[in-house]
Amino acid sequence: MQFGGLRAVDNFEVSIEEHELVGLIGPNGAGKTTIFNMLTGVYTPTEGSITLAGVDVTGKKPYEIVRHGAARTFQNIRLFKDLTVIDNIKIAYHNEMNYSTLEGIFRGKRYWAEEKKAQQECLDFLKIFDMEDYADTLAKNLPYGKQRKLEIARALATNPKILMLDEPAAGMNPQETHELMETIHFIRDKFDITILLIEHDMNLVMGICERIVVIDYGKIIAKGTPDEIKNNPDVIRVYLGE
Ligand SMILES: Nc1ncnc2c1ncn2[C@@H]1O[C@H](COP(=O)(O)OP(=O)(O)O)[C@@H](O)[C@H]1O
Ligand SMILES: [Mg+2]
């Protein structure tokens, strides 16, 4: 990905297996968010390609990529602030709903059945984060840590194959962060999905990721298991040099 004179991501090549939990780490400005922006169609890569479950999704629009099974959260929270918590999730869930516009207007039997099912399933997403009591709260009135969790719940409601989390613990205290990391691991197993997790604090991801990719100045400097990464001299240099 080239931004004018800046090669923000260079020669990045990674393949992720189904069900893997992979950490993408690197110092601030390394290019992590830019990688997510390419994977989710926010940016079209200047060169190269992206394949998702056998489908070439390079250059597709974000909503198309969501339908192919990729969901994400944002480093800077992007909720529908003036909607309730449950409505934020329902918007993400809409692809799962099966009634026609006419049935929606005339409120037919199927409309009520589908809406009831949606309400229940969206509450179930909230329960994962112990947030069902906040269903009717406006998103903007949630405490910060819960806004982050709501973003994850909303991404999950799109029924993704791969979930990409951009610094989900940013701004949380150590206790909240620890719980969130456990929840992320739990989600991967419960929904049988693949997770790509961005963090800049490498200690955070060591505990839960099976594999870690480290980038610096847009280039991969190491790939491997947490133990391999911990002992890699290039990684130590980048992190101690910070
Ligand atoms: N839209 C953009 N236009 C120009 N430069 C950008 C843009 N987005 C990111 N960058 C630059 O690309 C580099 C990588 O940024 P980013 O991907 O946000 O890093 P990270 O998420 O690892 O902190 C930075 O130097 C940043 O300033
Ligand atoms: Mg970033």
Plain-language structure description:
- With 242 residues, this protein is an alpha/beta fold.
- The protein has 2 domains: 2-69 and 160-241, Rossmann fold; 79-142, no CATH class.
- 41% of the residues lie in helices and 16% in strands.
- The protein has helices at residues 32-39, 62-68, 85-93, 101-106, 109-128, 144-156, 174-191, 202-206, 226-230, 233-241; strands at 2-3, 6-7, 21-25, 51-52, 55-56, 70-72, 162-166, 194-199, 211-216, 219-224.
- The strands form 3 sheets. It has a 6-stranded mixed sheet, with helices on both faces. It has a two-stranded antiparallel ribbon with strand order 1-2. A two-stranded antiparallel sheet has the order 4-5.
- Strand 7 (162-166), helix 7 (174-191) and strand 8 (194-199) form a beta-alpha-beta unit.
- Helix 3 packs across helix 5 and helix 3 packs parallel to helix 6.
- The radius of gyration is 19 Å and the shape is globular.
- The two termini are 24 Å apart.
- The model has no long low-confidence stretch (mean pLDDT 93).
- Residues 3, 6, 8, 26, 28-34 line the site of adenosine-5'-diphosphate (ADP).
- GO terms for molecular function: ATP binding; ATP hydrolysis activity; L-isoleucine transmembrane transporter activity; L-phenylalanine transmembrane transporter activity; L-valine transmembrane transporter activity.
- This is Branched-chain amino acid transport system ATP-binding protein.
| Physical arrangement of strands within the biggest beta sheet | 6-7-8-3-9-10
Whole-number mean pLDDT: 93
Distance between the termini: 24 Å
Domain module tally = 2
CATH topology of the largest domain: Rossmann fold
* Multimeric status of the protein: single chain
Please, what is the CATH homologous superfamily of the largest domain? P-loop containing nucleotide triphosphate hydrolases
The low-confidence runs, each spanning 5 or more residues with pLDDT under 50, are none
Q: Which structural category do the helix and sheet elements fall into? A: alpha/beta
